[in-house]
């Protein structure tokens, strides 16, 4: 938790880390690279938006845990200034074997890139670009992870 935030930290003034898990946020806040730079917020922004706007929103491997993708992307859009950037990494559509059966809160077995692009464009994003950021190999299966970058219009 907080790996990407720690990489980004030297280039930004402040980071607001949002998660619904206090435990995950505590791990993030303990990273030396983030000390004095991060504010943690334990909140589901699909239910309760923040009273703030940002220049960049990043999310890694969290979107498949949020049931309502449309509302999540709408919230991201509402929280970004015009011209600001969104960067989301998550699984390409997989067969449901990525998480063990007993893992709770998995709402999506990855995403179809063109369907997610349509949601992004509907919610006010342009310049949508995809790349394959990573491949997770486990139990003889390969799971592709995309990175999508988009600009708030
Ligand atoms: C697989 S972890 C990824 C964590 C981190 N981004 C990383 O790459 O290490 C998924 C995270 O999504 C969080 N999460 C699940 N539902 C959420 C929601 N509705 N709003 C915010 N975070 C949520 C979980 O608490 C968990 O920390």
Number of helices: 4
How does the helix and strand content classify structurally? alpha/beta
Strand residues, percent: 35-45%
> Level of helix content?
10-25%
Bound molecules: S-adenosylmethionine
The total strand number stands at 6
Biggest sheet strand order reads: 3-4-6-5
Looking at this protein, list some descriptive labels.
single chain, 22% helix, alpha/beta
Account of the protein in words:
- The chain has 153 residues and is of the alpha/beta class.
- 22% of the residues lie in helices and 36% in strands.
- It has four helices and six strands; from the N terminus they run H-E-H-E-E-H-E-H-E-E.
- It has helices spanning 3-8, 22-29, 69-78, 113-122; strands at 15-19, 38-42, 54-60, 80-91, 125-138, 141-152.
- The strands form two sheets. The protein has a four-stranded mixed sheet with strand order 3-4-6-5. Strands 1-2 form a two-stranded parallel sheet.
- Strand 1 (15-19), helix 2 (22-29) and strand 2 (38-42) form a beta-alpha-beta unit.
- The longest helix has 10 residues, at 69-78.
- It is globular and about 40 Å long.
- The two termini are 30 Å apart.
- S-adenosylmethionine (SAM) binds next to strand 1.
How would you briefly describe this protein structure?
This protein is α/β, with parallel strands linked by helices and 153 residues long. The protein is built from 4 helices and 6 strands, in the order H-E-H-E-E-H-E-H-E-E. Helix content is 22%, strand content 36%.
């Amino acid at each position: 938790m907080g790996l990407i935030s720690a990489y980004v930290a030297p280039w930004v003034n402040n980071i607001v880390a949002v998660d619904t898990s206090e435990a995950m946020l505590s791990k993030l806040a303990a990273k030396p690279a983030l000390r004095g730079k991060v504010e943690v917020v334990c909140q589901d922004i699909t239910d309760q938006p923040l009273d703030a706007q940002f220049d960049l929103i990043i999310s890694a491997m969290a979107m498949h845990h949020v049931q309502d993708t449309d509302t999540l992307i709408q919230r991201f859009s509402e929280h970004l200034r015009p011209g600001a950037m969104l960067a989301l990494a998550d699984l390409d559509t997989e067969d449901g074997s990525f998480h063990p059966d007993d893992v709770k809160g998995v709402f999506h077995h990855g995403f179809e890139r063109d369907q997610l692009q349509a949601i992004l464009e509907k919610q006010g994003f342009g310049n949508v670009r995809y790349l394959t950021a990573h491949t997770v190999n486990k139990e003889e299966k390969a799971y592709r992870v995309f990175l999508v970058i988009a600009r708030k219009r």
